[in-house]
Amino acid sequence: MLILTRKIGKSIKIGNDVTVTVLDVVKGEDVKIGIDAPDHVIVDRSEVRERRDKGWQLDEGSMCPQCNKAKLSYQKDGDCSCHNNPPCGACTNSFLACDNCGFEPQITD
Q1: Measured between alpha carbons, how far is 15 from 92 in angstroms, rounded to an integer?
Q2: What is the pLDDT of residues 48-74, one digit of tens each?
Q3: 67 and 98, same structural domain?
Q4: Are residues 68 and 103 in the same domain?
């Protein structure tokens, strides 16, 4: 493991295509970083990657993997084609989303 110390606004390069920049230090311990990478490079937080690698599936009540502050719930999109209120996900006009940040996971069968 390479360990580096960088000041706010300074960057490191990974290969020719990835740049990691220190944007801010919040409350003395949280570091806000920006990652500039081409579209074909997948950039995930480690806990999200671990869930994906284990085949973890998102469903109603799952913690949002994007903001990690709220749970996912079914949202209504237009007229609900079933009679459930709130939407249950059974109809085609409902979708899973985070109430906090709006993240919408891609649902796979």
Answers
A1: 44
A2: 777 666 656 677 788 888 888 888 887
A3: yes
A4: yes
